[in-house]
Specification:
Elements: H1 3-25, E1 41-44, E2 47-50, E3 55-61, E4 64-69, H2 75-84, E5 91-93, E6 98-101, H3 107-140, H4 148-181
Antiparallel strand pairs: 1-2, 3-4, 4-6, 5-6
Helix pairs in contact: 1-3, 1-4, 3-4
Amino acid sequence: MFKDLMKTLEEKMGKTINNLEGELGTLKAGRANPTMLDRLEVEYYGSMVPVSQVGNVTTPEPRVLMITPWEKSALKAIEKAVNMSDLNLNPNNDGSVIRLIIPELTEETRKNLVKVVHKKGEEAKIAIRSIRRDVIEKIKAMKKEVSEDEVKKGEEDVQKRVDEYIKKVDQILQAKEKEIMTV
């Protein structure tokens, strides 16, 4: 009876988890990670495009990101985009590639990053609870069509799925916190 609602619930909560993972992936954790540059856009032939569409992003060393543009003419644009971004990284342009050296994080910076991680996790949990509220309201609106027992079971099923996703969020946060705090 509530199959479509449960499917919608799963899809929306899955998107929330993917969004959280994407946001956490862009945080600097003291290690080079190509996802850090996912939000970085480069002006290329008059339009703004993600850096991954103008070059190859690799991690040759644990604390170095290397951007190899498809065309050498894109080097200056990539360098400018990195300088203008909120990454606080200094690009080294050697004429064929750009290297970004990720600085070691101080203890204070690590603690501040953990706070940001927890804030993003709480936002994801709020989004999941909001999705739960919407689905439960739709289930309650069906009281005229189905029995009260079915409504109760539907609500319990929704809560069970929500609890699983909240647990997933907590696991993602724990893993990211461990990654940040590892020196």
